[in-house]
Specification:
With 333 residues, this protein is α+β, with helices and mostly antiparallel strands. The chain contains seven helices and 22 strands.
């Protein structure tokens, strides 16, 4: 028998004691059924280009568009949802992400060639879509070969490079809303602007169609080769990095402002501002998300002090801060 506060044994206490430690409920217990894969407390750093970040409370990989729609229909509305694509343009903070993190995979990777365009699933790599178009002799999508990431992310932010962007060639995008509705929206309804698309709140891009036109295969291949050479010559493509850190202000280039403010080669903990292209942050080994984000904020502060321009982040920062960033130590050698 277990004594009470008065010292007398309690008949009720003994059965309770035999129950053992009480299990703390986890979000995964509240989730609706799915044909996909679901994991609790999964570290996200291995999925990001920067190789930093904490854990997802739940990581869910839907098997198909229908599976995703059914899951979101039944998911309690108070559960936050975050999509993780290639995470080439994202910093996942060290404290991880509460709620459900969705990672679209094989069921969202189909590419279909049409006479005057390409239909691609959201999980397709941008460069792969460019390669499919080139192999079919379709021109106009070569710029995608120079953009890291997936089609879903490219549509969601109107990605662009090398003289073109998604807005110039997008016909329509298919979405699954947070409530699970499947909709197709023409490009005109997405209000595409510089690195921006107006998606319905919480909507997830699952497929898109891009216009293209018949072209000479040799000319298309030559343009893509030129883009690859230019990218390798000017960007730290073999480092742990993301896409462009900051948006270009109107009529200006972010890298020029950073360079003029003395930001090239700046170091904070394991993070550095690239010597090769100073609008790229690097994880030089052992960086935390706090190092990277803190360095980005220091660059913004220096540029504002030097030019009066406040740079806007192009890289998404998601999740909960955790840990302390290192102080800026000086420029890289």
């Amino acid at each position: 028998m277990i004594p009470t506060l008065s010292g007398e044994p309690s008949e009720m206490a003994e059965p309770l004691a035999r129950l053992g430690p009480t299990r703390i409920p986890h979000l995964i217990d509240r989730l609706p059924p799915t044909c996909g894969r679901v994991q609790a407390d999964t570290l996200l750093a291995p999925f990001t280009w920067f190789r930093v970040g904490g854990a997802a409370e739940v990581l869910m990989r839907p098997s198909s568009v229908t599976d995703l729609a059914d899951f979101l229909t039944a998911l309690p509305p108070d559960v936050p949802v975050q999509v993780l694509g290639a995470a080439s343009n994202m910093i996942v903070r060290d404290g991880g992400i509460h709620g459900v993190v969705l990672r679209l995979g094989r069921g969202f990777g189909e590419v279909r060639i049409e006479r005057d365009g390409v239909v691609a699933g959201a999980a397709c790599l941008d460069a792969a879509v460019a390669e499919h178009a080139a192999a079919a002799g379709l021109a106009g999508l070569e710029f995608l070969s120079g953009i890291p990431g997936t089609i879903g992310g490219a549509v969601a932010m109107n990605a662009g490079a090398y003289g073109s962007d998604v807005a110039s060639c997008l016909d329509w995008a298919e979405l699954v809303t947070r409530s699970g509705e499947q909709v197709r929206l023409p490009a005109a309804e997405l209000a595409l602007a510089y690195r921006h698309a107006s998606l319905p709140p919480g909507a997830i891009v699952v497929r898109a169609r891009f216009r293209a036109q018949p072209g000479d295969r040799a000319t298309i291949a030559a343009r893509m080769a030129e883009i690859r050479r230019n990218r390798e010559a000017t960007q730290p493509v073999r480092a742990r990095t993301g896409g462009s850190t900051f948006r270009n202000p109107p009529g200006m280039r972010a890298w020029e402002l950073i360079d003029a403010a003395g930001g090239r080669g700046l170091i904070r903990g394991g993070a550095a501002c690239s010597d090769k292209h100073c609008n790229f942050l690097l994880n030089t080994g052992g960086a935390t998300a706090a190092d990277l984000e803190g360095l980005g904020e220091e660059l913004r502060r220096r540029v504002h002090a030097a030019s009066g321009v406040m740079l806007e982040w192009e890289i998404k920062r998601v999740g909960i801060p955790g840990g302390a960033a290192q102080l800026v130590a000086g420029n890289a050698a």
